[in-house]
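Changelog-adjacent note: as of this version, every example in the card shows the full chain rather than a window. The one below runs 322 residues end to end.
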Amino acid sequence: MKAKSLAQWLPAVLLVAAAIFLALGPFFLKGYWIRVLTSMFMFAVVAEGINLIAGYTGYPAFGNVVFFGVGAYTVAILMTRAGLPFAVSLVAAGVVAALFAVVLGFPILRLSGHYFAIATIGVNIATREIVTNLDVTGGGHGIALPVAQGSPAVLYGFFYYLMFLLMVATVAATWWISRNPFGFALRAIRDEKDAAEVMGIDTTVYKVAAWAVSALFTGLAGGIYAYWMSFLEPAYAFDVTISVKGFAMMLMGGLGTVTGPVLGAFFLELLSEVVWGSFLNLHLLILGLFIILVVIFMPRGLLNWLNGWRLLRKSLGLEQRG
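Full-length structure tokens:
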């Protein structure tokens, strides 16, 4: 009984320990690792955003990076052209990205499968080209944001905690959605759209709402990134590689789970840093092979694989059943 109680509480204990470690990170980690962890938090938000529309709703949004770019450029334009403070610009970034998703959602979310995936990539490319040819965005030359004031240690800590809090908020929102009727409706749409409609679910409205929430958090991540880097150019702000990487992180951790995308983001980013430092010329090749192996042997992600392994041990009598 005692062993069973410990096993039940172990995930929660590990989660709290990890949260405390990350919350205190800037006090004992060096600048390089603060930057790496900040990047991990950012990709965790991107992966969790994709999870809401792909994992829970079943719509593979490979062009979700469009909201990252929209959020980033909203902050850049409002700070440089309108002279607004970062806090106001960041809130606007999330709102603009969410509204952009609503406008796109009603026509595009009527598509499904690979048609929807290709459409999202097309929207991202079109948006990038528009941004590249506008004077207000700085065009293809990019746009420089006001440089944040403070010592390197203070600035590292500021962006670290900002991205960390955004990641926590994104996970909390996903957890809340997964446990209320909104989340149940999204899963019903994912499993059988026609049956969901027969049950009285307005599938278009729910899909658009899910994409808007995804865009909100992705846009906020882009807005923080813009101020963090203090320079933007369309080629990276709308780089589809960000979406592909986020998709891989979601699949690696476990799509349709609350913490799986975060686990995948941390694992893949950490692996990327290790491989980059040790195998500079073979960096992308090794990462690609590793992702292929994970998809083949753990197609439902790390979390689902661990849960399945635990059930197997119980069935074989290797763990106490209680």
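Structural remarks: The radius of gyration is 20 Å.
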